[in-house]
Amino acid sequence: MGPVPAAASPAPRRGRGRPSSPVLTTDGITAAAVALLEERGQDGLTMAALARRLGVAPSALYNHVATKQDVLRAVQDAVNRGIDCSGFGRLPWEEALAAWARSYRDAYERHPALVPVMAVTPVRSAPHTVAMYERVSSGLLSAGWPAHLVTNVVVAVESFALGSALDTQAPADIFDPGDLAPSAPGFTTANAARPAGDTARAAFELGLAALLAGLRDLLRSPS
Amino acid sequence: MGPVPAAASPAPRRGRGRPSSPVLTTDGITAAAVALLEERGQDGLTMAALARRLGVAPSALYNHVATKQDVLRAVQDAVNRGIDCSGFGRLPWEEALAAWARSYRDAYERHPALVPVMAVTPVRSAPHTVAMYERVSSGLLSAGWPAHLVTNVVVAVESFALGSALDTQAPADIFDPGDLAPSAPGFTTANAARPAGDTARAAFELGLAALLAGLRDLLRSPS
DNA sequence: ACCTGAACACCGTTCAAGT
DNA sequence: ACCTGAACACCGTTCAAGT
């Protein structure tokens, strides 16, 4: 699968039957879906909207993908392609893992609708996703992590990154208890003391630092 | 809000106009929605199915809730009510936090459809959710955590628990690279070495141990 | 093989009409 | 105030008909 070309917006076809050369490709559909998701958010990605952007009838899409879920899987692989794994083999594993986690969270912050898809979609037939896991896994193995722990480390960091990506979608007042404040003094105190700014990022960085420190300990003193 | 009563399945009403006493209550709708979600999964919760279970026309629901999102919010508060916060004030904070995280993950493992809802829904008018955060926040404050860090600690643990809850929904073969195995030797090695059994739980426990160890360090040596 | 256009079974939600 | 039943604007998906 080559680089995903930018989606054009061709004029609607007027002919009735089979076109002389195919109008749609899987890569084109994927690119249009990514663009739609980025421009219009998760509810903006409908098969009808996708077809319109591609200048085609909705039913035409089903000559190239079996279901909408197929489209989401392809989009997810395109998103994973953009995640930075370049630190592995070049930097100490803690730094490579931290950079991967940050990039992972940022990618899914832009595509929160894909978080449940990512958690559940098999990697086979998702080449960029497999390539990502290969870099991470072999990086951890080379750094001295025992093979039987590597996937659990990857999944733990991934779960944290995906949960943190969802957290970026929270409204600023998510923890405002409203009328219930009098019944929650400790909660209210803690919220008032939380520094303003990018709170989601602050929570992510705190958790990431703790997680990495704990993993470092674990690797040093195996149980 | 009292305990949510088990949802009965009343015979459909036959009369045409306003009933002599209301047939629906918000609590009843919530309980039926929880049951539906548990029995039929996330796609099983439709306004039509909810109405049928309550012996009512779909449009009748809109006298009690404004949108389906309202129903999900109420369900989420009911789910949060079942999360165990009992350790705070009784056990060392690390143990209380660990028990909370485990219970949190388990609750959302049963309701993965609510994970994106939980990450984004304001707590006001969700009394059990506020009560949960109050126990956790005041527990951490009493244990000596600086107020400005408490909410970030809570959010970090929560993000990890929610991400891990999603991970429980992954199929067993999610990491099977299929045809792509030759291009991913390290990934394949790591997967082969991963112990069989409840792999999602193993990853969660590894990450939780690391996260808590890191938080312990952080509390001891503040930056 | 790969498109169009009509059709299907759903979805959440609105609203007039009934009591 | 709180229900019914009809209706609306959508949704993903199927399929015969065209070239």
From TrEMBL, chains A, B:
The keyword Repressor applies. The lineage of its organism: Bacteria, Bacillati, Actinomycetota, Actinomycetes, Kineosporiales. InterPro entries: Homeodomain-like_sf (IPR009057), HTH-type_TetR-like_transc_reg (IPR050109), HTH_TetR (IPR001647), Repressor_TetR_C (IPR004111), Tet_transcr_reg_TetR (IPR003012), Tet_transcr_reg_TetR-rel_C_sf (IPR036271). It holds the Pfam family TetR_C_1. Residues 1-23 have a biased composition (Low complexity). Residues 23-83 form the HTH tetR-type domain. Residues 1-24 are annotated as: Disordered. PROSITE patterns: HTH_TETR_2. It comes from Kineococcus mangrovi. This is TetR/AcrR family transcriptional regulator. PANTHER family: HTH-TYPE TRANSCRIPTIONAL REGULATOR RUTR, TRANSCRIPTIONAL REGULATORY PROTEIN. Gene3D superfamilies: Tetracycline Repressor, domain 2. Residues 46-65 bind DNA. Keywords: DNA-binding, Repressor, Transcription, Transcription regulation. The keyword Transcription applies.
